[in-house]
Amino acid sequence: MLKITMPQNANQIIHTLQEAGYEAYIVGGCVRDAVLGKEPDDWDITTSAKPDEVKALFRRTIDTGIQHGTVTVMMKNEDTGNLEGYEVTTYRIDGKYEDHRRPTEVTFSTSLIEDMKRRDFTINAMAYNDEEGVIDHFEGIRDLEHGVIRCVGEPSERFDEDALRILRAVRFAAQLDFTIEERTQEAIRRQAKFLKDISAERIRVELNKLLLSNHPERIRTAYELGVTKVVLPEFDAMMETEQNHKHHMYSVGEHTIRVIEEVSATQNLRWAALLHDVAKPVVKTSDASGDHFYGHNKEGEKLAGEILRRLKFDNDTIAKVKRLVYWHDYGMGEMPSLKSFRKSLSKMGPDLFPEYVEIKRADILAQSDFLRQQKLDNLAGLEQYYEQIMEEQQCLTLKDLAVTGKDLIENGMKPGKELGATLAYLLECVLEEPEKNERETLLALAKEKGYFSHVC
């Protein structure tokens, strides 16, 4: 019998419920992960006890989702002394689903198998306790062994219940490097349209997990099954836009997938990789020399912002991804001078440069081999410029100037627009000649030139 080592507190909750005459098991993802030899993030528990019966057995509980049978039991971690929560949910049978999101009613049950029938995939429909071992009515272990994502029962019914499961199927396939079983695929193709009923926040969470997985290229599966047509139609346009140009060998979409694979699994980088060429289908022109995508970075910055806002991303992520999309194509023509690079780095923001390098290198490697080495050499040259600027602590921003607005006011300048313009002028002088970033030198320049219309 397979033995799963669970946290002491989870085991204690199960034993407390059993001693009171109820059934209790760890359930779902934690069983799946444990069978796969992974450390689960959460240890959820299912039981025949009703919510009020669960609450009566434990001193500290929170009504997390009591209308759906879920109570969070708070237990003290003996190692850390901190309280930790375990969700304990009553067996239930869901009523009719009318919006592809939630049941109209929930009926509590005393049958584990009836509770398992409503779960999404066989690999998530297993339960365990130490006395009985793994309870696996739907051959989840077999599907784990064969690397298969399969719905519990009839796929169309599971997707009718919660259309988000359509995207979750692709996400699990990406995280586990599994294939999606044929009947489940067919149901996804038929019912992907119902993803329109799912909130943007829930869509974002699943897309994010897919992109941050070890196999983000499975977004191609989402395209092939008609999922991105609903949740990210811009990606479909990318997949269907060819690049007839000597610098490229793939469609915009296939190029994009390869860029995603090349960058680190961070939210900013993976989303910037996904969206760096998102505007190419919009700006594409063609002539005798091939296809062109003039201004795709600027238009892409705008479009990326619209997409990320639609998916309810936080403002910080939106701002950083937009900056990466805008700057991703910088520096790949003639090698800029150090002075020119310093000015561009000031506008880009030095904090962005390491991520720019990663995106740019991935972008180059996902293109044709035309001038590839020259592009990589240029990028290496920019990195050397950056290291020199950082090592010498050259001024790149207003906050790095050796004078402040207060200094200018103390020397006779009035607050207002002229003050800001003068600081901007002084920064331009320092970007031209870093050695000028000395307090007395800058005050002399401000006194001599005075106003923003003057230049160095």
Q: Can you describe what's shown?
A:
It is built from 23 helices and 13 strands. By secondary structure, it is α+β, with helices and mostly antiparallel strands. The strands form 4 sheets. A 7-stranded mixed β-sheet has the order 3-4-5-2-1-8-9. Strands 6-7 form a two-stranded antiparallel sheet. The protein is globular. The termini are far apart.
Short description:
The protein is α+β, with helices and mostly antiparallel strands and 456 residues long. The chain has 23 helices and 13 strands. Helix 14 packs across helix 17 (315-327), helix 18 packs across helix 20 (372-391) and helix 19 packs antiparallel against helix 20.
Largest sheet: 7 strands, mixed
Strand order of the largest sheet: 3-4-5-2-1-8-9
Query: How many alpha or pi helices?
Result: 23
Shape: globular
Helix content: 40-55%
Termini distance?
Answer: 80 Å
Say how many strands there are.
13
The whole-angstrom Rg is 29 Å
Strand content: 5-15%
Q: What structural category do the secondary elements indicate?
A: alpha+beta
Mean pLDDT: 94
Low-pLDDT runs of 5+ residues are: 451-456
SSE layout and pairing:
Layout: H1 8-19, E1 24-27, H2 29-35, E2 45-47, H3 51-57, E3 61-65, E4 70-76, E5 83-90, E6 92-94, E7 106-108, H4 112-117, E8 127-129, E9 133-135, H5 140-146, E10 148-149, H6 155-161, H7 164-176, E11 179-180, H8 182-191, H9 200-211, H10 219-224, H11 228-231, H12 233-239, H13 252-262, H14 267-275, H15 280-283, E12 285-287, E13 290-292, H16 296-310, H17 315-327, H18 338-348, H19 353-365, H20 372-391, H21 405-410, H22 417-432, H23 439-449
Parallel strand pairs: 2-5, 10-11
Antiparallel strand pairs: 1-2, 1-8, 3-4, 4-5, 6-7, 8-9, 12-13
Helix pairs in contact: 6-8, 7-9, 12-13, 13-14, 13-19, 14-17, 16-17, 18-20, 19-20
